[in-house]
Every structure is written in structure tokens, then in C-alpha cells.
What we know:
rod-shaped
Amino acid sequence: xxxxxxxxLKLDFVWNPLDAIERAAMLKSAQANLDSARIALKxxxxxxxxxxxxxxxxxxxARLRLEQARREYAIAQESRDLAALRYQExxxxxxxxxxxxxxxxxxxxSVAQAEYELLMASINLYNACGLSPxxxx
Length: 137
């Protein structure tokens, strides 16, 4: 082979015009999936914020209910003490004293129930925030 013979180079190039269309479709599909994921994430964040607001509202309602139950207990205790004094002085019947004692017991139960509801509301609020009441962070 001499230098005059030269060199021949042959290239085979195959290009399918449908490859570009398929690639564009795949890109559009990926973009749509990304948009859907972003929308789902936003929806989940909004739902979480709403749940936390609801649990915080439940907590505040339970706290106010406990304060009211404690005030009513104090009133029932005063009424029972007054009924006991009146009974000792002979100006009240035993039924009045019994009724005052029953009201005090009912108020005591209402306080215990309100305390339970406040504890449950606290736990629900912790859980909604992704916390555990037992962790100390």
C-alpha cells in the first residue's frame, strides 16, 4: 500500500427520528410526575397544618373546660360546706346536705373527666406534631 492509495473511512450512522419524539414524551411524562408529586406534597403539608390547628383548638377547648370544671367544683364545695353548717345549726334538712354532697361528687367527677380530656388532647397534639410525650427534646 502506498501513500497515494489513501485511506478510506466508512461511517454508518443510524438516526431514528422517532427517538427525539420518544425522548420528548418521556421528558413530559417525568415533568408531569414531578408536578403531581409537588401537588401531593403541598396537599399533605396543608392537611398536616389543618390537623395541627384542629388539635391545638381541641387542646385549648379542653383546657378551658378544665378551668370551668375547677371553678364549678369550688362553688360546689362552698355550697356543701354551707349546707353542712346550716345542718349543724338545725336550719337545714339532711336532704339539703345530701344534695350538696351529691353536687360536690358530681363536680369532682367533672374535674377528673376534664383532666382526662386535656391529657388526651395533649397526646393528640403531640402526635399531630410528630412528637412523643415521652421524649425530652
